[in-house]
Amino acid sequence: MKKKLNIIQFTPYFSPHIGWVEKVSEWIFLKWTQWISSIYSWNIWQQWVVYNNKKKNIIDNKTKVFFPSFDIIDNFPIPMLWTRNYRSSHKKLLQIIKQNSDEDFVIITHTRFFISSYIWGIFARKNKLKWVHIEHGSDYVKLSSRWKSSIAYLYDKTFGKWVIKNSDQVLAISSAASSFVKTAFSRGDVDLWYRGTSIPEKTNKKETKVEFLYIGRLVHLKWVSDVLEAFSKIQWDSILTIIGEGEERKKLEQKTRDLKISSRVIFVWGMNHDLIIQQLVKKKYILINPSYQEWMPTTVIEWLATQNVVIASDVWGTREISQENDLILFPAGDIATLGNTMKKTLNDYDMLSWKSYDYLQKNFSWKKSVENLYTLIR
């Protein structure tokens, strides 16, 4: 019989906020079956929640509490430590742990760069709780300017380094992330853990028309503008749909007008994840991930699992997802190569699709992933 193991994940953001960390932490939260599974996160895109007693706090062994916070810069939340709500939530967390002092609790943080990993690492050390850090990054953070990237680097070498050095255990979500942590922060004992995803059943009933698709945040670091540039060189009967939200949206819409492709580009606001997967299963898509920096993108795994073809920038852990022909890599920022790859893939789609399906089923299912996580941290 498996030993009961309570996990408390501390994350910078949580669903419905869109991002790689949110998706991984949400699925761990939902799929964990070894006892209590809790999420404590900042309240960006959330309503503040704190439960009044233990009975309400544990519903089907799942708990979610959101602390008040704000984005000091884009994609970098800071907790409002001085507020009454924050202090109340913090006190409630300590009460839950104290009330269950005869059980094992494991603190899990995600990505060294977010301040949440530093703050909750201190919490784990102070309260003598086992602290497991899951590292998603495979490089130093690259921001929109050199001086911003320099500040991020200094942060990484102080707060980020402290997180890596002081956590009881570090799990890396890709071999690229593992190598980076070992090299950049001189920590040798890093375990590899591939996060999972839901794998839809195979289907032979897809619609015949092939379309291009981008799904994700519309922010500078995703470089969606490269996709528009490349798409402008493709024949006029093809369609590109962009699903997502972000501060770059108006700029990207204007770019479609400047490139004279606005009639072929459809912008859709953020959609429910399950609805997106249903759409991907029904239709034939060439999905594009142009990011200049990427951990091991969950989105690419999901897209391939729906028996579609993916064109992705060859960065960090992406190439570990599959060696099959339905994952096509290109050098990040090489718009000419991206455009030529899009053209060729449009013609060869039926010869490429579904090649990775069996491999993904074996290596990236959530059942296998959660079992591996339990084995690693118990």
Layout of strands and helices, then pairs:
Layout: E1 6-11, H1 20-31, E2 37-42, H2 54-57, E3 62-67, E4 69-73, E5 76-79, H3 84-99, E6 105-110, H4 115-126, E7 130-135, H5 146-166, E8 169-172, H6 175-185, E9 190-192, E10 210-215, H7 224-231, E11 240-243, H8 249-258, E12 265-268, H9 273-282, E13 284-289, H10 298-305, E14 309-313, E15 327-330, H11 335-352, H12 357-363, H13 366-377
Parallel strand pairs: 1-2, 1-6, 2-3, 6-7, 7-8, 8-9, 10-11, 10-13, 11-12, 13-14, 14-15
Antiparallel strand pairs: 4-5
Helix pairs in contact: 4-5, 7-11
Description of the molecule:
By secondary structure, the protein is an alpha/beta fold. The chain has 13 helices and 15 strands. The chain has helices spanning 20-31, 54-57, 84-99, 115-126, 146-166, 175-185, 224-231, 249-258, 273-282, 298-305, 335-352, 357-363, 366-377, and strands at 6-11, 37-42, 62-67, 69-73, 76-79, 105-110, 130-135, 169-172, 190-192, 210-215, 240-243, 265-268, 284-289, 309-313, 327-330. A seven-stranded parallel beta sheet has the order 3-2-1-6-7-8-9, sandwiched between helices. A hairpin with a 2-residue loop joins strand 4 and strand 5 (76-79). Helix 4 (115-126) packs parallel to helix 5 and helix 7 crosses helix 11 (335-352). The longest helix is centred in the middle third of the chain and has 21 residues, at 146-166. The radius of gyration is 21 Å and the shape is globular. Residues 48-59 have low confidence and may be disordered.
